Amino acid sequence: MIEPKDVSAVILAGGLGSRLAEETSVRPKPLVEVGGRPIIWHIMKIYSGFGVRNFVICLGYKGHMIKEYFANYFLYQSDVTIDIGGKMTFHTVQAEPWSVTLIDTGEHTMTGGRIRRVGAYLPPDRPFFMTYGDGVSDVPVDKLLAFHLAHGRKATVTAVRPRARFGALDLDGAQVTGFREKLDTEGGYINGGFFVLDPSVIELIPGDDTVWEHQPLERLVADQQLQAFQHDGFWQPMDTLRDRNYLNDLWERGQAPWSIPPPRP
Q1: Residue 70 three-state SS
Q2: Which of 21, 31, 50, 243 has the fewest CB atoms within 10 Å, i.e. the most exposed one?
């Protein structure tokens, strides 16, 4: 039986993040911090909490900064003695046992094209996880994988119900009859990322200009090869500065549902 530890996770980390320009003018969106850590670190911790150790990261906009972050990560997480003559001795090390493959998939490549470009770095005989580099969730990765393996189709998408941003008015014609504070969700399910994909889906991606959410997913739907793992727990993208502040506040208060284990306030 394939377990999460046997599966690689692909993270799309190459977009411009234009709606978060306050941060992304100087760094790629996956390096925008929540609780003092880049959002991509939080995403990787979600997966590694279920045993995933191998990551393939699709780089684009300012990708060199993500390379530099991981190139120095072991050093960041260690106590060291540095001999200015060139010797470095590592003492206490807190770095995770991750293998991180960083692939430049092009600054203007679309989401599908990025997946196609990293296909050669994925095992051909097992599924892989895929998600976006800007959203966190408390999705049970082990159950997601088990669901995918059980239904036998080529693709699984995690279906989520986004948190409502506004309150609601109760109306009788033009008469306001009541006001409700923010609902827990906005209504229907949407694509929350956190996919499980068979390697054969890469054949549905013709080139760099292919948007994963359009032609490939539509083909999978038409062929009845896409199943939805319904997740009614926490899910939150980081599209705007408001989103970043919300996630940061949850982390600082020790109430970050996506954290395994939860952070201390």
Answers
A1: helix
A2: 21
Distance CA 143, CA 149 (A): 10
End-to-end CA distance of the chain: 38
Summarised one tens digit per residue, pLDDT across range 1-10 is: 899 999 999 9
Q: Which amino acid is at 73?
A: Y
pLDDT tens string 161-212: 887 765 555 666 655 556 655 555 556 889 999 999 999 999 999 999 999 9
Closest CA to 106 of 12, 27, 24: 12
Distances (CA, A) of 54 to 14, 81, 122, 189: 19, 29, 10, 29
Residue holding tokens 């200009």? 209
Q: Looking at the domain that runs over 4-252, which CATH code has it been given?
A: 3.90.550.10
Specify whether the CB–CB gap between 155 and 216 falls below 8 A.
no
Sequential DSSP letters for 134-147: TEEE---HHHHHHH
